[in-house]
TrEMBL record:
PROSITE patterns from the UniProt entry: CYTC
InterPro entries: AAA_16, Cyt_c-like_dom, P-loop_NTPase
Gene Ontology molecular functions: electron transfer activity; heme binding; metal ion binding
Region (Disordered): 1-21
Alphabetized Gene3D superfamilies for the sequence: P-loop containing nucleotide triphosphate hydrolases (3.40.50.300)
Presence of keyword Transcription regulation: no
Protein name: AAA ATPase-like protein
Alphabetized Pfam families for the sequence: AAA_16 (PF13191)
Domain (Cytochrome c): residue spans on this chain: 166-332
Keywords, alphabetical: Heme, Iron, Metal-binding
Species, as recorded: Barrientosiimonas humi
């Protein structure tokens, strides 16, 4: 098959040629935008799921929907080593400019508030040249969103931005990827701000995406966060959607898959969108002709697995220290042992008791806390319930067991 015409796109956050299985989320968000635009009460949105299920792709698709609705939009990616002020200011700067508000003085005032909010991030006594400038020409507005209390400042900031959007009958949507990596104080402030703007019926919505434990992070910050956000779990694709993700791009290039090929592809990928793209690319490049057969999938499987081992699994494994890798391998072995014994059902994400990991390593659970906590912070594992731990990456346990 001609590799130049290969339609599949296994990239981080790269939109696949066919965004299959996400119609419900897109339709729901369209309704959210329209309701907020009409002054109706609505909640902000949080997407959760494992790595490789397409959260970032969906987040970008939702942003595109907001742009089509003529909203102002901005996006940021949370990082454990960065506080919220600077990236949020940059995102809001973009959003305010997209609104196209006709009153220059009003726009400059709000941009001045955004600037004061950003510059409050500088340490006390910092010289002018040490203060971060978000590229805003308007002068900073003193006494607004610059108290130093992130919760107070964020409420004031989003209130002013929301008021500007309401003036022109539009809204502002802020998209936050890797939301679980926000600093605890910033999470609390964001929840409080979302609560405040919702009560004030201001046209501002926050759309976050993160790992499965993100709801627990939000709940630990503010108890009312369970009612503050509309949660959507983004999971692997069902069989029909997975087949559509493969077939539609192929048909655009006058190619197709046989039934046994589709069955083999679903068995190999488990319906995970990133794996579908990785396998699709490898199979296309190695298949001699259309239609692609089950035999072609078998031939291409080692190539796809090799690519995943380096770019998807290996890059994450390399981030772990030797002690952390030992913990990861023990998790994989415990999961395999549970499956072999059949005494309890191993769930889809291969979550295992932390006590069993410690027992396998011959260590006390407390002595393994540093490794476990480090892996949690690196986003390689997560705790969905007390006393259990799971990989954030699907099929990671299988990868580790294959490494020996």
């Amino acid at each position: 098959m001609d590799p130049i015409r290969n339609p599949y796109a296994p990239g981080a956050g790269q939109r696949p040629p066919e965004l299959a299985g996400r119609d419900a989320e897109l339709q729901t968000f369209t309704i959210v935008l329209e309701r907020i635009s009409r002054g109706r009460p609505e909640r902000s949105v949080v997407l959760t799921g494992l790595r490789g299920v397409g959260k970032t792709v969906l987040l970008n698709a939702l942003r595109s929907a907001a742009v089509r609705a003529h909203w102002g939009t901005g996006k940021l990616e949370a990082r454990p080593d960065q506080r919220l002020r600077r990236p949020l200011s940059a995102a809001l700067h973009t959003a305010v400019r997209e609104l196209g508000h006709p009153q220059t003085d009003d726009v400059d005032h709000v941009l001045g508030v955004v600037k004061s909010f950003a510059q409050r991030d500088a340490p006390a006594g910092a010289k002018l040249r040490e203060r971060w400038n978000p590229g805003i020409d308007a002068p900073a507005v003193s006494g607004r969103a610059d108290s130093g209390d992130i919760e107070i400042d964020l409420v004031e900031l989003l209130s002013d931005v929301g008021g500007l959007a309401a003036d022109v009958g539009k809204g502002v949507a802020i998209f936050i990827d890797e939301m679980q990596d926000l600093h605890p104080e910033d999470v609390s402030a964001l929840c409080a701000a979302c609560h405040e703007i919702s009560q004030a019926a201001l046209p501002v919505v926050v759309v976050g995406a993160g790992l499965p434990h993100l709801p627990a992070v939000l709940s630990a910050s503010k108890s009312y966060s369970e009612r503050l956000f509309r949660y959507a779990r983004i999971d692997r694709l069902p069989r029909d959607a997975a087949e559509r993700a493969l077939q539609m791009p192929a048909k655009e290039e006058d190619a197709d898959f046989t039934e046994d090929a589709l069955e083999a592809m679903y068995s190999a990928t488990g319906g995970y969108p990133y794996f579908i793209q990785a396998y699709g690319k490898a199979v296309w490049d190695l298949a001699p002709r259309t239609p692609i057969t089950g035999e072609d999938v078998g031939v291409a499987a080692p190539e796809a697995e090799s690519e995943l081992a380096v770019g998807f699994f290996g890059s994450r494994y390399e981030r772990a220290t030797p002690g952390e890798r030992e913990y990861l391998r023990a998790m994989a072995d415990v999961a395999a042992d549970i499956a072999a014994k059949g005494e309890e059902e191993l769930d889809e994400i291969e979550s295992v008791p932390t006590s069993d990991v410690a027992k396998l390593l011959g260590r006390k659970p407390q002595s393994l806390s540093p490794a476990r906590d480090a892996l949690l912070k690196k986003g390689l594992i997560y705790s969905g319930e007390r006393g259990r731990i799971a990989f954030t990456v699907p099929h990671f346990g299988r990868y580790l067991r294959q490494q020996g």
